Design the sequence.
């Protein structure tokens, strides 16, 4: 045996020792590279090159999980931020948000069907075909929306935005159903990727908001009414009174372009989902994870035989906490969130509204990244965050009820407080939501299905509770951004 062959055999022996295989002179050993950070510990026996390769594959999976999560609610979030431009040409005008709220709740028929299938026919419904269907439906709907959102139909003597409402309903079905299909699919990946998915879900609100900011949605200038007064009609009172009128600035690009961009975002999510299913690096990781789950299920079966002997600390931290914390977060997030943001922030000015909307959208993925690196599962800490977030939400609700003259409306400190309140509200309850998802992920596939179902239940309750308060009883009133006068 030559010196080169001897050194090669020593090298492969060390690698095979890590692989737990016996080396042979014929085929050496099949080196399995690590695919997660937990396996990547460079040492004298484990070359750093393999660690780098494993980290790259892990980073790829994180990116794909994030982009996949971005497609969960990007369509409806994009619709909400584009409403200031859409209502200008829709015959429903500012009644359109109320119609959209009702359509979103009607779309809960999608998650209701999926949840019933998992409850009464467990194991029959595979999430992957459902995800392919709803994501493709979202791509087609957003693309058609770009060309038909302005079209109207005469119904009972009145013009109605029928294509806009139908396509919005389809997008609502897509996004609502994603809550009970995307989460269970993430069960096939390692636990750390679930946190990345939640970060992507947060980006589904942030990315459309940033695009709308670049577009210039809702930018208002207050101009003197004398510049637009019609003296020929004898309207001298309005001309001479010095009244200001709100003039919306033209957008940098059209609504059509915005909806095409939404369609592209959905395409990116579809590509990420395809790669999560078929990319070799992710596939190898899923195969390794499959063995992990088999071992985990065996352990759970063994533990279930002696569950009565467990101490309280050994039992899973599940129970009323999940419903008590997840439901308020989701009800504010999808049903109540958009309405309250308008009523609570606009009295402080257009800049305060846009700053609160943007920073709240940023707070969601930031909370997910914090949970990724600092996952605290303490029951006391989660209860504290829930109470703190709910208290902040109560302040926001109070300011919305006092609109158009909330507390400290004329001061800079009032603006800072309402913006900070929105940031802390979203940050705290988003963190709780992620930790609940991580805990339920350890409990199995059905737990994540019910997690998504509870999120949608909270969304429905929030929207149904806010709709009569806003549209029927008029509890919340919006002021004129240019002419509202409040006592000092």
Sequence:
């Amino acid at each position: 045996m030559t010196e080169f062959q001897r050194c090669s055999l020593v090298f492969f022996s060390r690698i095979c020792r890590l692989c737990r295989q016996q080396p042979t002179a014929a085929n050496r050993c099949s080196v399995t590279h690590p695919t997660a950070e937990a396996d990547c510990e460079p040492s004298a026996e484990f070359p750093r090159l393999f660690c780098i390769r494993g980290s790259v594959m892990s980073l790829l999976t994180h990116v794909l999980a994030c982009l996949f999560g971005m497609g969960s609610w990007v369509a409806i979030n994009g619709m909400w931020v584009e409403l200031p431009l859409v209502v200008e040409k829709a015959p429903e005008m500012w009644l359109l948000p109320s119609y959209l709220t009702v359509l979103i709740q009607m779309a809960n028929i999608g998650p209701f069907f999926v949840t019933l299938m998992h409850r009464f026919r467990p194991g029959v419904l595979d999430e992957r075909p459902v995800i392919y269907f709803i994501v493709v439906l979202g791509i087609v709907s957003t693309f058609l929306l770009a060309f038909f959102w302005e079209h109207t139909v005469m119904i009972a003597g009145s013009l109605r935005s029928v294509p806009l409402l139908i396509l919005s309903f389809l997008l609502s079905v897509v996004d609502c159903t994603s809550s009970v299909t995307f989460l269970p699919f993430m069960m096939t990946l390692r636990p750390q990727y679930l946190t990345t998915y939640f970060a992507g879900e947060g980006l589904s609100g942030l990315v459309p908001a940033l695009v709308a900011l670049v577009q210039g949605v809702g930018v208002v200038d207050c101009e003197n009414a004398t510049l637009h007064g019609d003296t020929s009609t004898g309207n001298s009172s309005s001309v001479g009174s010095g009244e200001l009128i709100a003039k919306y600035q033209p957008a940098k690009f059209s609504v059509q372009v915005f909806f095409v961009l939404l369609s592209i975002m959905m395409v990116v999510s579809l590509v990420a989902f395809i790669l999560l299913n078929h990319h070799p690096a992710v596939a190898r990781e899923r195969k390794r994870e499959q063995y992990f789950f088999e071992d985990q299920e065996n352990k759970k079966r063994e533990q279930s035989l002696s569950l009565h002997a467990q101490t309280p600390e050994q039992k899973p931290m599940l129970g009323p906490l999940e419903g008590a914390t997840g439901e308020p977060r989701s009800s504010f997030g999808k049903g109540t969130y958009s309405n309250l943001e308008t009523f609570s922030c606009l009295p402080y000015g257009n800049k305060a509204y846009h700053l609160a909307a943007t920073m709240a959208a940023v707070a969601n993925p930031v909370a997910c990244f914090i949970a990724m690196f600092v996952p605290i599962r303490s029951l006391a800490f989660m209860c504290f965050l829930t109470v703190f977030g709910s208290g902040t939400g109560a302040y926001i609700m109070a300011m919305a009820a006092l609109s158009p003259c909330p507390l400290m409306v004329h001061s800079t400190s009032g603006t800072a407080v309402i913006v900070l309140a929105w940031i802390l509200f979203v940050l705290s309850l988003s963190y709780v939501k992620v930790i609940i998802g991580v805990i339920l992920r350890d409990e199995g596939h059905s737990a994540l299905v019910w997690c998504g179902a509870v999120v949608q239940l909270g969304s429905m309750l929030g929207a149904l509770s806010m709709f009569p308060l806003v549209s029927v009883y008029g509890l919340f009133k919006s002021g004129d951004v240019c002419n509202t006068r409040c006592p000092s």
